[in-house]
Design brief:
By secondary structure, the protein is an alpha/beta fold. The chain is 55% helix and 11% strand. Strands 2-1-3-4-5 form a five-stranded parallel beta sheet, with helices on both faces. The longest helix is centred in the middle third of the chain and has 33 residues.
């Protein structure tokens, strides 16, 4: 399996695909050409930095349609190519997250620069996603009680107040809190709060105690 960055090319013009493939290879990246959106969607997802050079006008699904279908692939920036772009189309693509919208004919160095930026963004997104997945694994290792303690602690309650909310002693809260910090790899309360925010753990309202059903719901959302 390749470890080189991959540049997907989706364009129904064979000569354009060949030209783009040559340009991509010269940049030291691996090109993967496709003649249609359907062909691309049949390709397994990759786990290396990647981006897509996408023509707007495609048979069947258009480039804009394909962009919507891969919107969850935040680690694969899209560079649009078109021979007849207009302002409305450009705005639509950029609002949906496209990195660049180039009108043919374009200068090779402009596309190379856009690809380089796209792959750098892909690396950053992959690192961010990996860090979030690691947090999810750590959170999943917490017991129900530890999750309850974490929710109340990151909401700003003191150990004594957490104990009062959960009906347990302050010493027991300290023990659970220590386990939470250790399992989550947090070196401070501020760090734990940032982790909870990234995970989407909801803050506790005054007098609110997370139930078993609620912690299970949170866990399901984070899995």
């Amino acid at each position: 399996m390749t470890s080189n960055p991959i540049v997907f090319v989706v364009d129904n013009d064979e000569s354009a695909r060949e030209s783009l493939q040559s340009l991509i290879e010269q940049g030291g990246w691996e090109p993967r050409p496709f003649a249609s959106a359907k062909d691309f969607l049949a390709e397994p997802r990759v786990h290396v930095p990647s981006c897509m050079v996408l023509d707007v006008a495609l048979p069947g699904l258009s480039g804009l349609d394909l962009q919507k279908l891969v919107a969850d692939r935040t680690d694969m920036p899209i560079i649009f190519l078109t021979g007849h772009g207009d302002v409305e189309m450009t705005v639509q693509a950029m609002k949906a997250g496209a990195l660049e919208f180039l009108t043919k004919p374009f200068r090779a160095d402009v596309l190379v620069r856009a690809i380089r930026e796209a792959l750098e963004r892909s690396r950053t997104a992959m690192a961010r996603n990996a860090a979030l997945q690691s947090l999810r694994v750590s959170y999943a290792s917490l017991s129900r009680r530890e999750r309850e303690v974490m929710t109340l602690v990151v909401s700003g309650l003191l150990n004594k107040q957490v104990g009062g909310e959960l009906g347990i002693s302050e010493i027991t809260v300290k023990a659970h809190r220590g386990q939470v910090m250790r399992k989550m790899g947090a070196d401070s309360l501020a760090g734990l709060v940032r982790m909870a925010d990234r995970l989407g753990v909801p803050p506790a309202a005054a007098g609110w105690v997370p139930t078993i059903a609620m912690t299970a719901k949170i866990s399901a959302a984070l899995s």
